[in-house]
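Marked as duplicate of an earlier ticket. Keeping the data here for the record.
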Amino acid sequence: MNKKLLPLFSSGNIISPSLLKIFSILNMQHDGTFADIVQKAQTQLLRKKGQERWDIDPLFEDKRQELLPHLKALGFIDALAPEPGMYEYLLIFGFVTTDVKSHFDYIAQYITSRVIACKQVILLTSALPLPLHAPCRAFGATEAAMMQSIYHDSLLSAIPYTCIEVPMITENNATRRPTTADTVQAWIVTNPTPGNCLALSGQPFIRRQLRIAQDVLPTTFSVTPTGPKAEKNLSIALYLDELARAMYQEKYIADCTTHN
């Protein structure tokens, strides 16, 4: 875990004080274990199944000023500057909110100032259709089209790129959007040469997408996170939805580590 992303829990089931404070502010009862806190988060903080981020219900806004300092302490708000150096790959995760272009602009400033250099850009995206009311719909009809359009209009276009476009997935007679893990796995299937990766996301999604990439990629790949700060008016419900997902991911990886 990057030193700027404080662990949500550590060995011995020690839970971050900021995470415990968030649950206290929300009056969410738990038994004091990380497993129970994760379970409560999945049932009470996740957005509705099938609901996209731009349609999330505006819950918990009355707790905004109390919650923000603790979300900030856990590393869900501030920008995460890239570690200087040369990277084989710049992984750009699919993203479908208003400020998606800011991800490209954010990393471009570090490339043009020669703080970092990247040999290849990998767009990790999907065929997710974007409805007309989606904030990023102006850039393309699907997530993949939108990401490629922004890439071609950005300063990153001078770097060779590959677009990993994962089709919508049908499971149990239902169609779902590909996950971050699906897109990373689809890239690995193309048999890329092992190397160091700079993983570009945006707050509050950096922590979870870093952990997923680290979990899915072979150990011959290293992953360093980076990304811009969260949008100023991002809803508290979206922060908490992402917190719940990050908690689940960290518990999943910890459980896998314990069982191996």
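See parent ticket for discussion. The mean pLDDT is 90.
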